[in-house]
C-alpha cells in the first residue's frame, strides 16, 4: 500500500510541474527563414525581407519593441523619421547603418551599450534590407535595390563601415594591412575612438578587464592592426581569450596609430 | 562475500566498445558503401523526442552513478576515522544502489548511441570525425569505472579491516577519479555542440583537438555537473531512505533509514546552495562566447523557463526547510524553537512570491494580452534581477538560521559569554540581512554592470560570511553544551518522508528542465553556427511540450529507480533468510 502511495505522490508532483509549465504563455522558436536577396527586389519586397531579418535571424525583437516602451532597447516606432535628425552630419541611412554596425556609437538616452555589432551576425545584404525596413517605420525608404545588391558583393565576413551601400564595396579592398605611419598617433583621438566603440565590450579603463573583452592597455600597434582590422592575431601571439565576438572594423584603419598611442 | 549484487551489468557495458568500434570503422552506417541520409525518422514520437528521452534518462542515471560515489567514500572514511559501524553500513548501502544503476546507465547509453547513429547519421559522422581519439578513450575508461565499482562493492566485506580497508578506500577514490574523467570526456562532446572551438567555423574542419575539447562551456559545465551530481545523488539516496523508512518493519530499521534520509538530504541541500554560483559562471561564459546566445536564453524565447525554474527551486527551499522543521520533532528540546517557524515560513513565502514574479520578460503580443501588459502593474517591480537576487539570498539565510536551530535543538550552551555569542550570531544575521536588502534596493538605481558584477557578488559573499561565521561561533558556543533531550532517530511523521520524495522528484524534474535549456539554446543548430539542423525538428518547442517530455523522462527514471529499490529489497530478504537459517 505504501508503494502505491509513493507512486501516486510522485506522479502528483510531476503532474503539478507539468501543469504549471503548460499554463504559462507558450511560444515556439522557429529558425529564421532563408532570405533570398539574389532577385531584383522591389521596395516592398526589400522591406518585407528586412522585416523577416528583424524578427528572425537578427533577433532584434528580443530587445526592441515597435510601438511600446519598456524593452531593453529603444522603441523603434517612427525610427525612420527620427534617424534623419539624430546626428546633424548624418542622413537616416548612414545613422541606421551606424546603429547596426556600431551600436554604441550613439546611445539613445536611458539605454546602455547592450547591442552587439550586427556585422558579425548578418550579411551585408541582410543589413541593408534591415535598414530599409527600419526606414519604412515612419519615413520614405531611400535604399535602392542596387544598394542591396552592392552590399551583397562584400565578403560576408567583413564588417561594413558606416557609409552608404555603394561605398561598401570598397571595404574589402581597404582591409589590407595598413603601413605604419611615420607620425605618432594622437592619444586624445584614440581615446575618442575607444570610448565610442571599444567600451561596448572592453572596460572604460583599458587596464581593467571589461564585461566581454579583456584588458587592452599596452597593446602593440601590430596587435591592434591585426585584431581591429582583420579580427586576427599577429603570428605567434597567444590570445588572452579565445573569443570570436570582435568583428573586423576596417574603417578604423586611420585610427590605429591613435589607438596605439592612447593605449600605451 | 555478498551474493546479492545484480547480474545485469556485463552485457550492457560490453556493448559500448563494440558500438564504438562499429562507429569508428564506419560499419554501422556503411559510409563507404552507401550515401548517408541526412536524417531518419523515428515512428510516432519523432526522432528528436526519442533521442531526447534516451539522453535525459541516461544523464539522470549517469548523474546518480557519478554523484553517489563522491559521498559514499567520504561517509566510509568518516566510519574509519570514528570507528562507528553505522557509517560503514550506510556507505555500503549507497554503493549497493550504484551497482544496478551502473548497468542501467550503460543500457540507456547504448540506446542513445543507437538512436543517434540511426536517426542522425550525418551529424554523428561529423562528431565522430572531430572527436575520434576520445571515442577510443571513453569505453576504456568506462571499463575501468565498471571494474573499480564492482571491485569496490564486492570487496567491501573482504577489505573491511586493517590495511586492506585503506586499499578499499583507495578504490573508492579511484572510482571517483575515473568517474570524473568520464564526465569530462562526455562533457566535451556536449559542450562542443553549444560553444564549438578548435574547428573552422565555416567548414567545420577540425583544427585543434585540444581546443575542440577545451571549448568555452567545458569547464563551467564540468564544475556545474560535478556539483549537481552530488546534489542529485544525495536527493535520490534520501528518497531511497524515505521509501525504506515507509516500509520499515521495526524501530531499528526506521531509525537507520531516518538517519540515512537526513544525511542524504543534507548532502543534497548543502551542495545545492553552491550550484547557483556555478550556474552564474556558466551563463557569463555563454554571454562571452556569443552575446546572442545569452540574450536568447535570458530574454528570448527561453525567458519563461526561468520562472518555472524559480517555482521548482522555491519548492525545494520550502520542502527542505519543512523537513528540517519536522526533524525537530524527533529531538527533545526542539519545541523551544518551533515558535520561530511561522516567521521563517513567512519570509520564505514572501521570497517565493518575489522570485516567481515575471517582469523583465520579452513577450509576444499574445503574451502581453495574457499578462495585461509587458510588466505587471502592481508587482512587476519585484520581477527585476535586483529583487530576485535579494529574495534568493534571504531564502538561503533563512534556511541557514533553520539549520542552526536544528543543531541546537537539544542543547543548552554552558560556555561563559553564551549570551554574548548568541547576540553576536543574531547581529551577524540581522546585519547581513540589512546589507543584502540595502544592496537589493540600491540595485534599482545603479548601472546594470554594477548590479550584476558587484552587488550580486557582494550579496552572495555577505550571505556566505554569515553562514560561515555563525557556524564557527556555534562550534564554540556549544562546546561541552548540556544535552536536555535525546535525538530519537525514527521518530518522524510519514509526511517527512514524503517531503524527501518530493525533493528528489523536484530535483529530477529540475535537472530535466535544465537539460532542455542547455540543448534549446543551440536553437536550430546541431553544432552552434557550424552544423545546422535541417530536420523537421529544427525548432524549439513550447515550454509546455518540453515540460511534458521532461515529465515522461522523470517518470521513466523514477520508475526504474523504484525497480532498482525493489531489486535491492529482494536481495535484503535473501540475506535475512540466510542469516535466519544459519
Q: How far apart, in Å, are the first and last alpha carbons of chain A?
A: 77 Å
Q: What's the shape of chain A? A: globular
Number of strands of chain A: 0
Q: State the fourth-level CATH superfamily of the largest domain in chain A.
A: Cytochrome c-like domain
Shape of chain B: globular
Radius of gyration of chain A: 23 Å
Which structural class is indicated by helix and strand composition of chain B? mainly alpha
Number of helical segments with 4 or more residues of chain A = 10
Element-level helix/strand string of chain B = HHHHHHHHHHHHHHEHHEHEEH
Question: What is the total tally of β strands of chain B?
Answer: 4
CATH topology of the largest domain in chain A: Cytochrome Bc1 Complex, Chain D, domain 2
Uncertain spans of chain B? 1-14, 24-31
Task: Please report the first level of CATH classification, the CATH class of the largest domain in chain A.
Answer: Mainly Alpha
Write down the domain tally of chain A: 2
Q: How many structural domains of chain B?
A: 3
The secondary structure category of chain A is mainly alpha
Termini of chain B, distance in Å? 15 Å
Reconstruct the topology from this structure.
The complex is a heterodimer of chains A (264) and B (582).
Chain A: H1 2-23, H2 43-55, H3 79-86, H4 92-101, H5 124-136, H6 145-152, H7 165-174, H8 187-196, H9 221-230, H10 256-263
Chain B: H1 9-25, H2 47-82, H3 85-119, H4 121-130, H5 132-154, H6 162-194, H7 209-213, H8 218-246, H9 251-289, H10 291-299, H11 305-327, H12 341-355, H13 365-371, H14 385-407, E1 411-412, H15 418-442, H16 448-477, E2 482-483, H17 494-520, E3 525-527, E4 531-532, H18 543-581
Structure description:
- The complex is a heterodimer of chains A (264) and B (582).
- Chain A has 264 residues and is an all-alpha fold.
- Chain A has helices at residues 2-23, 43-55, 79-86, 92-101, 124-136, 145-152, 165-174, 187-196, 221-230, 256-263.
- Chain A is globular and about 85 Å long.
- Chain A starts with a helix and ends with a helix.
- Mean pLDDT of chain A is 76; it is low at 155-182.
- With 582 residues, chain B is mostly helical.
- Chain B contains 18 helices and four strands.
- Chain B has helices at 9-25, 47-82, 85-119, 121-130, 132-154, 162-194, 209-213, 218-246, 251-289, 291-299, 305-327, 341-355, 365-371, 385-407, 418-442, 448-477, 494-520, 543-581, and strands at 411-412, 482-483, 525-527, 531-532.
- In chain B, the strands form two sheets. A two-stranded antiparallel sheet of chain B has the order 1-2. Chain B has a two-stranded antiparallel ribbon with strand order 3-4.
- In chain B, β3 (525-527) and β4 (531-532) form a beta hairpin.
Amino acid at each position: 500500500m505504501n508503494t502505491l502511495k509513493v507512486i501516486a505522490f510522485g506522479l502528483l508532483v510531476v503532474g503539478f510541474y507539468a501543469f504549471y509549465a503548460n499554463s504559462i504563455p507558450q511560444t515556439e522558436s522557429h529558425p529564421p527563414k532563408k532570405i533570398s536577396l539574389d532577385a531584383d527586389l522591389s521596395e516592398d519586397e526589400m522591406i518585407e525581407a528586412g522585416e523577416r531579418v528583424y524578427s528572425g535571424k537578427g533577433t532584434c525583437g528580443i530587445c526592441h519593441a515597435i510601438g511600446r516602451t519598456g524593452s531593453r532597447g529603444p522603441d523603434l516606432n517612427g525610427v525612420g523619421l527620427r534617424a534623419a535628425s539624430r546626428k546633424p552630419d548624418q542622413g537616416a541611412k548612414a545613422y541606421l547603418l551606424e546603429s547596426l554596425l556600431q551600436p554604441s556609437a550613439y546611445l539613445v538616452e536611458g539605454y546602455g551599450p547592450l547591442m552587439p555589432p550586427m556585422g558579425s551576425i548578418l550579411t551585408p545584404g541582410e543589413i541593408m534590407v534591415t535598414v530599409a525596413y527600419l526606414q519604412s517605420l515612419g519615413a520614405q525608404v531611400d535604399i535602392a535595390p542596387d544598394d542591396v545588391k552592392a552590399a551583397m558583393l562584400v565578403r560576408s565576413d567583413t564588417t561594413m563601415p558606416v557609409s552608404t551601400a555603394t561605398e561598401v564595396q570598397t571595404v574589402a579592398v581597404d582591409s589590407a594591412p595598413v603601413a605604419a605611419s611615420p607620425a605618432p598617433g594622437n592619444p586624445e583621438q584614440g581615446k575618442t575612438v575607444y570610448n565610442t566603440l571599444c567600451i561596448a565590450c572592453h572596460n572604460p579603463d583599458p587596464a581593467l578587464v571589461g564585461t566581454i573583452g579583456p584588458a587592452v592597455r599596452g597593446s602593440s600597434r601590430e596587435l591592434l592592426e591585426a585584431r581591429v582590422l582583420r579580427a586576427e592575431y599577429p603570428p605567434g601571439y597567444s590570445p588572452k581569450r579565445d573569443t570570436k565576438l570582435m568583428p573586423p572594423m576596417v574603417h578604423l584603419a586611420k585610427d590605429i596609430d591613435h589607438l596605439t598611442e592612447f593605449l600605451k | 562475500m555478498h551474493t546479492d549484487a545484480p547480474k545485469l551489468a556485463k552485457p550492457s557495458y560490453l556493448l559500448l566498445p563494440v558500438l564504438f568500434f562499429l562507429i569508428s570503422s564506419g560499419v554501422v552506417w556503411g559510409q563507404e558503401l552507401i550515401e548517408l541520409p541526412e536524417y531518419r525518422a523515428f515512428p510516432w514520437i519523432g526522432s528528436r523526442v526519442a533521442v531526447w528521452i534516451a539522453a535525459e534518462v541516461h544523464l539522470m542515471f549517469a548523474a546518480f552513478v557519478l554523484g553517489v560515489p563522491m559521498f559514499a567514500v567520504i561517509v566510509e572514511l568518516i566510519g574509519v576515522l570514528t570507528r562507528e559501524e553505522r557509517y560503514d553500513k550506510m556507505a555500503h548501502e549507497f554503493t549497493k544502489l550504484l551497482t544496478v544503476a551502473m548497468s542501467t546507465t550503460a543500457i540507456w547509453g547504448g540506446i542513445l548511441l543507437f538512436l543517434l547513429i540511426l536517426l542522425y547519421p550525418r551529424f554523428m559522422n561529423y562528431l565522430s570525425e572531430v572527436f575520434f581519439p576520445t571515442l577510443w578513450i571513453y569505453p576504456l575508461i568506462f571499463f575501468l569505472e565498471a571494474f573499480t565499482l564492482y571491485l569496490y562493492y564486492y570487496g567491501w566485506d573482504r577489505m573491511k579491516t586493517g590495511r586492506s580497508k585503506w586499499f578499499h578506500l583507495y578504490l573508492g577514490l579511484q572510482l571517483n577519479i575515473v568517474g570524473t574523467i568520464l564526465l569530462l570526456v562526455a562533457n566535451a562532446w556536449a559542450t562542443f555542440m553549444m560553444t564549438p572551438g578548435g574547428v573552422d567555423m565555416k567548414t567545420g574542419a577540425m583544427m585543434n583537438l585540444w581546443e575542440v575539447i577545451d571549448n568555452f562551456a567545458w569547464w563551467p559545465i564540468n564544475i556545474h555537473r560535478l556539483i549537481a551530481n552530488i546534489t542529485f545523488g544525495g536527493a535520490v539516496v534520501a528518497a531511497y531512505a524515505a521509501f525504506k523508512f515507509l516500509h520499515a518493519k521495526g524501530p531499528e530499521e526506521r531509525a537507520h533509514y531516518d538517519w540515512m534520509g537526513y544525511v542524504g538530504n543534507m548532502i543534497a541541500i548543502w551542495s545545492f546552495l553552491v550550484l547557483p554560483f556555478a550556474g552564474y559562471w556558466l551563463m557569463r561564459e555563454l554571454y562571452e562566447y556569443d552575446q546572442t546566445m545569452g540574450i536568447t536564453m535570458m530574454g528570448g524565447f527561453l525567458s519563461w523557463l526561468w520562472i518555472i525554474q524559480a517555482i521548482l527551486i522555491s519548492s525545494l527551499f520550502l520542502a527542505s526547510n519543512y523537513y528540517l522543521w519536522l526533524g525537530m520533532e524527533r529531538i527533545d528540546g526542539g519545541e523551544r524553537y518551533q515558535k520561530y517557524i511561522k516567521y521563517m515560513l513567512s519570509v520564505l513565502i514572501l521570497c517565493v512570491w518575489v522570485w516567481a514574479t515575471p517582469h523583465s520578460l520579452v513577450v509576444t503580443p499574445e503574451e502581453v494580452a495574457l499578462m495585461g501588459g509587458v510588466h505587471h502593474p502592481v508587482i512587476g517591480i519585484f520581477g527585476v534581477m535586483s529583487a530576485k537576487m535579494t529574495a534568493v539570498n534571504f531564502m538561503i539565510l533563512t534556511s541557514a538560521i533553520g539549520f542552526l536551530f536544528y543543531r541546537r535543538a537539544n542543547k543548552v550552551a554552558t560556555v561563559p559569554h553564551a549570551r554574548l555569542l548568541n547576540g553576536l550570531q543574531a547581529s551577524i544575521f540581522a546585519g547581513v540581512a540589512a546589507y543584502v536588502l540595502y544592496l537589493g534596493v540600491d540595485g534599482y538605481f545603479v548601472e546594470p554592470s554594477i548590479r550584476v558584477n558587484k552587488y550580486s557578488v557582494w550579496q552572495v559573499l555577505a550571505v556566505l560570511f554569515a553562514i560561515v561565521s555563525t557556524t564557527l561561533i556555534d562550534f564554540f558556543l556549544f562546546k561541552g553544551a548540556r544535552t536536555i533531550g535525546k535525538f530519537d532517530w525514527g521518530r518522524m511523521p510519514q509526511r517527512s518522508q514524503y517531503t524527501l520524495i518530493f525533493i528528489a522528484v523536484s530535483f529530477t524534474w529540475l535537472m530535466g528542465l535544465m537539460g532542455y535549456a542547455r540543448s534549446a539554446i543551440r536553437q536550430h543548430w546541431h553544432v552552434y553556427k557550424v552544423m545546422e539542423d535541417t530536420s523537421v525538428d529544427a525548432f524549439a518547442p513550447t515550454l509546455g511540450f518540453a515540460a511534458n517530455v521532461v515529465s515522461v523522462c522523470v517518470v521513466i527514471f523514477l520508475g526504474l529507480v523504484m525497480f532498482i529499490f525493489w531489486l535491492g529489497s529482494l536481495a535484503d530478504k535473501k540475506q535475512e533468510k540466510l542469516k535466519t537459517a544459519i
